[in-house]
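Before drawing any conclusions, I needed to go through one protein's amino acid sequence and its backbone structure tokens, quoted below without any editing.
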Amino acid sequence: MSTIGFLGLGAMGSRMARRLIENGRTLVVWNRSPQPVAALTALGASAAATPREAAEKADVVVTMVADDAAARAVWLDRQTGAAAGLRAGAIAVEMSTVTPAWIAELGAAVAARGAALVDAPVAGSLPAVEAGQLVVLMGGDAAAADKVKEALAPLAAGFRHLGPSGRGARFKLALNHLLGAQIALMAEVLAGLAADGFDEKVAAEALAGAPVVSPAAAGYGRLMAADKHDRQFGVDLMVKDLRYALKVSAAKGVKAPIAEAALAVFERASGAGLGEANASSVRKVYP
């Protein structure tokens, strides 16, 4: 069985790493702060002092960080970057939600080491991680993608190979483009119903049963009605993802006014101090 280097142990990454360990995978882990590393070494993982050290010890190297800038620091730092530690024949796996432009940049650095890159962001939040029900969206060489599927099987209910390098990253931005618009619209609809005297919990349940409402929108509507916003997918992360989605659309000459409107809602929530709260908290920016 391959040794997996896991870099980035935030809310998602730490749960993913834990599930891999609990399902018999051998992990070497790194994180900027030490607490998540200590929790995972107590379960049997090995600790690395730098991303480069982790890569030197691993066959499959996974990153799960916040954005392009964080991923670039982990992979390409001159002194500690993981790319410089990749073995020939290793597989680099970028699971962060990032831009296709970053995937292209990383791909060149990985290829220079004689390794392969698979971009493999995930659909699903914290409960899906803990249940092993993520969907992994992969771009890159098909043979490398098959090896990633084998290594990371405990994490997911499904793996979708969407084509060449960058396709996984691009598709994930499309998903969050769609999700952000639905969350913002659900907040708007519930605010309008509440202003007309509806009980929001009753309204949210009625909307959840309507054929025009997606399961994701229904779930967020219930959280809004219950005023329950424990973080699963934060407002600031949605701001980042919508900005990325707009950037890639603009690069192809595609207008995205709905994404622009949704972004404005999430930026307003972030400006109101809700950046670290769950995305459902955008309901609070409506009267």
The mean pLDDT is 97. The first strand starts at residue 3 and ends at 7.
